[in-house]
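tokens incoming
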């Protein structure tokens, strides 16, 4: 029960840091455009933090990207055009969920492909292991048995 205040404080700190990422001066007056901007920002990676969206990050580059997204929306771009503009400028790494087109299909398929290969190798290993005769069934030769008897007498 003593750790409850610490857990509550940690949760509040995380919520406050996420809530403070988008500054009040960045928020658009039009709620529909702001909702679109938040949706787009949630799918773009912060290039400084690399594991947060620009909507969650407090980095100055993330702020610049959030402002750029809002500028493009105010200029009349569609969501796809805004994302394409950002990707053209910063590369596909800026997407939190990369596309599956182009050479990326190889990366997406490599995980399941390697799993299937490993599963097949495991099945082959288990089947071959069951077919190999055990080495201890032949027993000892006469010479080995005599030597063992001599050693046990001592």
């Amino acid at each position: 029960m003593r750790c409850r205040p610490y857990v509550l404080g940690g949760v509040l700190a995380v919520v406050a840091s996420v809530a403070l990422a988008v500054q009040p001066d960045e928020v658009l007056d039009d709620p529909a455009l702001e909702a679109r901007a938040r949706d787009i920002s949630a799918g773009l990676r912060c290039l400084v933090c690399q594991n947060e969206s620009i909507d969650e990050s407090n980095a100055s580059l993330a702020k610049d990207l959030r402002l750029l997204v809002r500028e493009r929306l105010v200029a009349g771009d569609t969501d796809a055009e805004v994302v394409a503009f950002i990707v053209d400028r910063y590369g596909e790494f800026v997407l939190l969920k990369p596309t599956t087109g182009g050479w990326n299909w190889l990366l997406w398929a490599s995980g399941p492909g390697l799993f299937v290969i490993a599963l097949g190798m495991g099945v082959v290993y288990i089947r071959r292991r069951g077919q190999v005769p055990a080495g201890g069934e032949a027993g000892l030769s006469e010479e080995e048995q005599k030597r063992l008897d001599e050693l046990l007498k001592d």
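note: Residues 148 and 154 are 10 Å apart (CA to CA).
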